[in-house]
Amino acid sequence: MKFAFGDKIREVRERKGITMKEVARRAGLSESLISQIERNRISPALDTLLSIVDILNIDLEYLFSDYKKERNVNIVKKKERRMIVVEGTKYEQLSHTAGLGEEHSIEAYYLEIEPGGKKGSIEYGHTGHELGVIIEGDGEFEIGKKSYILDAGDSISFSSDSPHLLKNLGTGPLKAFWVVTPPKMIFGK
């Protein structure tokens, strides 16, 4: 792929009233090279480009704005959320970025744990990290040999490689937002 940003360089240079000869002199380059770059005949080496950009005080974001990649966006409409119930915990999938080619994929859930119910395991953990925010109810979070009481509004984040368990201590449902990376694929692919 050939990047054609010469037009932008020429436009900025002319707007500032600087000649090609002046840019070439200040950059230690030939006027012919500056002309070829501006006409998109050649792509300069990175250090050459940075020198020209510095002389003309061009924002790199502006220079490369045409080359920003479109990013995948994943929208989950409320009425289209996938939902499953596992051992008394209802999972509603809020987000799932796995498979979108991102280095750091996540899954996010809305959880409802019935009174006396639990999510997780005290026997094993899994690779990754988690973040949870309690929306409603009272819970106890166990990780390794430690235990923490969590109330509405509290949040917790942790490395999920240790065994961990969230229990509902209240008489009503424990509701929470939960984020896991990398995704555990509770809903499959």
How are the strands of the largest sheet arranged?
1-2-3-10-5-8
Task: Give the CATH class of the largest domain.
Answer: Mainly Beta
Write the element-wise H/E pattern from the N-terminal end onward: HHHHHEEEEEEEEEE
**Strand tally, please?**
10
Helical content, roughly?
Answer: 10-25%
Number of discrete domains? 2
Biggest sheet record:
6 strands, antiparallel
**Assigned CATH superfamily of the largest domain:** Jelly Rolls
CATH architecture of the largest domain, by name, is Sandwich
Could you list the spans in which at least 5 consecutive residues all have pLDDT below 50? none
Structural Rg? 27 Å
- Counting DSSP H or I runs of 4 or more residues, the number of helices is 5
Percentage of residues in strands: 25-35%
Shape label:
elongated
Instruction: Output the structural class.
Output: alpha+beta
Please report the distance between the alpha carbons of the first and last residues: 33 Å
CATH topology of the largest domain: Jelly Rolls
**Average pLDDT number:** 88
Provide structural commentary.
This protein has helices spanning 6-15, 20-27, 31-38, 46-56, 60-63, and strands at 83-86, 89-96, 107-113, 118-121, 129-136, 138-143, 146-151, 155-159, 164-168, 174-181. The protein is α+β, with helices and mostly antiparallel strands. The protein has 5 helices and 10 strands, in the order αααααββββββββββ. It has 2 domains: 6-67, 434 Repressor (Amino-terminal Domain) (Orthogonal Bundle), CATH 1.10.260.40; 78-181, Jelly Rolls (Sandwich), CATH 2.60.120.
